[in-house]
Specification:
Elements lengths: L16 E5 L4 H12 L3 E6 L2 H7 L1 H6 L2 E5 L5 H14 L4 E4 L15 H28 L3 E5 L12 H21 L5 E7 L5 H4 L7 H4 L5 H13 L8 E4 L5 E2 L2 E2 L16
Helix pairs in contact: 1-9, 4-5, 5-6
């Protein structure tokens, strides 16, 4: 029997069943780790099923974590997985954290194929899981967390294609929330700025260790997601914006410390 949504306890996921995409690294990995510690049973989705099994071997053996090797841009595969879970292990929470960026990313250098591939992962993948899982979320008065980006609202150096995909996620989250709130489904869009994830490793201009230490860490985003979904069901945290305190304010990226290299502000990074 599921706990009444208004009787949720902040930080406690006991008895809840969650699916996290992008679970093999970055924000997705941190979310799985935090949610397992909070008492959830977690289904993880990523292309690297073996990597997920390696990250949480004890939880796999105990049945608290179930890895699923799947590309989020495979709509048929997503539908099949969600259909299976709807009968075998119904979900009450989705955390949609899978995402990527491209290089080169300056507008005049982005190819048609690169743009399409980016949208398939960052936008279509989120839509597929939401659409395929909405019935389970209605049944459980469940929660959705969509990992967008501060670049959805404020231009930065992440590239127009990436920014467009993340802006579309905010619009999608707002639209789904409007359509589904009467069913008790809560939708939260989290918009973090610089996060120290593997995406940073693929920047055209690498960031040195001293700068990475000032970034938002993946576990910070996971904590924000946990707080949003464990508030009593009568209250929705619609949107959360996270910025790296020493590096950014909303809509502005700068480093006052002259010892931090200018790579952070390079136009094409």
């Amino acid at each position: 029997m599921r706990l009444d949504a208004n009787e949720r306890t902040l930080g406690d996921l006991t008895g809840r069943t969650v699916l996290v995409t992008g679970a093999s690294s970055g924000i997705g990995e941190a979310t799985v780790t935090r949610f397992l510690a909070a008492g959830a049973r977690v289904h993880g989705v990523a292309r690297r099923g073996d990597e997920m099994a390696r990250l949480w071997p004890d939880a796999v053996v105990e049945g608290r974590f179930v890895p699923h090797a799947l590309d989020v841009s495979d709509g048929d595969g997503v539908q099949a997985l969600m259909d299976e879970l709807s009968t075998s292990d119904p979900l009450d929470t989705l955390v949609l954290a899978a995402g990527r960026n491209i290089n080169p990313r300056a507008f005049g250098e982005v190819s048609f194929n690169a743009f399409d591939d980016l949208m398939k992962v960052n936008l279509s993948g989120v839509f597929y899981f939401l659409r395929a899982g909405i019935g389970q979320l209605r049944d459980s008065t469940g929660d959705v967390v969509i990992i967008s980006s501060v670049s959805a609202l404020w231009p930065d150096h992440s590239g127009p294609a990436y920014q467009a995909s993340k802006a579309a996620l905010v619009a999608l989250a707002r639209g789904v929330a409007r359509d589904e709130h009467a069913e008790g489904v809560r939708v939260t869009a989290i918009m973090p700025a610089f996060v120290n994830t593997p995406i940073v490793d693929r920047r055209p201009v690498p960031l040195p260790a001293e700068v990475r230490g000032l970034l938002i860490q993946p576990q910070d985003v996971a904590e924000a997601a946990l707080a949003a979904i464990t508030l009593p069901g009568r209250t929705t945290v619609s949107e959360i914006t996270l910025t790296a305190t020493r590096i950014q304010s909303i809509g502005n990226t700068q480093v006052a410390n002259p010892e931090i290299p200018s790579a952070l502000r390079t136009e094409r990074h």
